[in-house]
Amino acid sequence: MTSCDQLVSTICELLPVVLKREVSGADAGTALLDALGLNSTTGLELVLELEERLGLEISVEDLGRDDFATVGSLAAYVADHLLADA
Amino acid sequence: MTSLFAVSDHLPSGRVPIEALAGELGLTPMQVRIFRRYHGLGEVSRDEGGSLLDLLRGAVAGLAALRGREHLVRYVLHARSFPTVVPYPHDPVRELCAELGLDAGVPVFSVGHHACASGLLAIDAAGRLLAADGGPGALALVLAGEKAFTPEAAAVPGSSFFGEGAGACLVSASGGRDRVLSYAVDLRGEFDTVADCAESESEFQRIYGEALAAVVRAAVERAGLSLERVTAVLPHNVNRVAWHQVCRVLGYPRERVVLDHVPTVGHVFCADHFLNHRTARQRGLLRPGEPYVMAAAGAGRGATFAAMVLQH
């Protein structure tokens, strides 16, 4: 079972990987698009990197722009859309 | 009232996986993975060694209704996503007209600047031209389809891959088949710099789903209908996720949006609607007397969101 807190923590670890720069102090409330400058491509990279890190597949069928509002909203989406092992 | 007298399409048999195009388009493995997983794209149609004339000829070959009515064709319009579709001095549309035995004096021209929504503009323009001076029984031949012959014409960065194919239809100013009930267009000149400016591109992505949904809603209202009555939406084949977003905004069931060709054919420029028309007929989504929608977003120099309601 992957909790939302664990997902928030893993997303924060992956942010520097997809943004290719240091990201300090990120937490569930950090705005991905506005504050960090994530765009649609890097946002999707983040989701796919997360899949690899978790070893689980995430259903991206319903993934919308709103889900990328904050680290917490993305973690909530992922928690609700985890599929079988990747 | 403008109507589609006959509709046809042509897809070549060649298919290329998007991974094979990554090198020439400078895409990373991650970007290709996103296209496949998220956008739902997989293969694109290609007519290796074939010309644009071959594609257009293939589409017109399916227009059985044209045979014996060549003398009734008053206009020929080629709807284009890109302003330049063949190297100078080739002119495949005029070559095709000659092959078909159309009157040499028939005006032949291209319709563009609505990018991938230019096919809908061409249908609307053809109907209005015929209504103005077509005469009894007059027809316009509307063509769509392009070659993915430059990197720019092979992919839409971050959104789609183009597939080669073509569509054709005969438009009349009146008639009982596939009557155009309404046409709505939202031209957004402020996105003129999408290709050059990250800020503009981000804003375009942000408004894309809402703007496309809004123009669909506007066309349906203009036709005096409610969205519940629309039996199918024939989209442009840009990708799966963009249309899922539009469905969410509209509250429209995604299974009635004809996205069947996105994973296996790609975005066939302005010809998607003709291709999807055949598929919708085959799937039983178009029913006599019932309305359906053709809609597209076009991004080039400026953005266009367009929707047309037709009655089958």
From TrEMBL, chain A:
**What does the record list as coiled-coil region(s)?**
none
Short name of one Pfam family: PP-binding
- Can you give the residue ranges of the Carrier domain? 1-82
Q: Can you name this protein?
A: Carrier domain-containing protein
Upper taxonomic lineage: Bacteria, Bacillati, Actinomycetota, Actinomycetes, Kitasatosporales
